[in-house]
Amino acid sequence: MGNMLVSIIIPTFNSEKFIAETLQSIQAQTYTNWEVIIVDDGSSDKTVSIISKLSQFEERIQFFQLEVNSGAGIARNLALNKVNGRYVAFLDSDDLWKPTKLENQIKFMTHNDLPFTFSFYDCIDEEGRPLNKRVEAPRNLSYKQLFYCNYVGNLTGIYDVDYFGKIPISAIRKRQDWILWLTILKKIKTGQPTPESLAFYRVRQNSISASKLDLLKHNFTVYRTFHRLNVVVSLICMIGFLFTQLIIKPKYIKRLN
Questions:
Q1: Quick one: pLDDT band at residue 91, thresholds 50, 70, 90?
Q2: Which of 17, 37, 38, 200 has the smallest CB count inside 10 Å?
Q3: What pLDDT score does 28 carry?
Q4: Of 104, 147, 128, 148, whose CA–CA distance to 204 is shortest?
Q5: Are the beta carbons of 238 and 216 closer than 8 angstroms?
Q6: Which pTM value belongs to this model?
C-alpha cells in the first residue's frame, strides 16, 4: 500500500458544535500519513478559536481563513491550492470518519489500481446518535447513473492527484461535490466504491438534504450551468432525477436494525 500522503480538505462555517469531533476522527485514523487543510468561510461563532487551538498541538493541520463568506466551493479551491498529497480526500466539518477509513480506502485504491473511490456511510443525528441507516452505492457507478443522482457521499470521496491533477471545484453555492464527481467520471467512465461503511454523515435540520425543495432547485442549477442544458431539457432531466430519487436510490439505503 505504501505510505503516500493524503490531503484532507475541510471547509468550515459556524461549526463550533462539531469541528473538534470531526478533527478527532481524523486524528484517530490508523493511516497516519495525512495533512488537513481547513478553510474557514467567515464564521461568526467560536469555530476559528477552536481550530486555532487544536492546530497548535497538531502540526498536520493547516488553517486558513476567508474574510467574507464565499461558499464551500471557494473555500475548497483555496484548500486545493495548498495540498501536497498524492491523494485528495474530502470531509465536511460536521461529519466523521471511522478509524480505518483512510487505511481501507487507500488499500482498496492501490490494490485495484483505481484513481477514484468512495465508500458507503452511516447516518447519525445532530447529537451523534445512530439513525440505523446505511447509504450504499452502485458497485460500478456509471456517468449516466451519476447524472441523475449523486451516489457519492462527499465525506467519502478520494481521488489520485497523479492521475487527474488538481481538479478545480465549482464556485456555485451548492452541489459542487456532485459536479466534481461528474467531472471525474467523464474521464474514467465508472467509479467503484470501497464496499463497506467508513464514515458517519450527520443529518442536520438545516442541511440541503433536509429540504427537498432546495434539493430540486440546486439540481436544476447543475443541469443548467454545468451541463449547459436549456430549460426544457433540464426539466426533463429533473423528471429522471425524481424517478431515481424515489424508485432507484432507496434500494441502496439499508436499515441496520
A1: very high
A2: 17
A3: 97
A4: 128
A5: yes
A6: 0.92
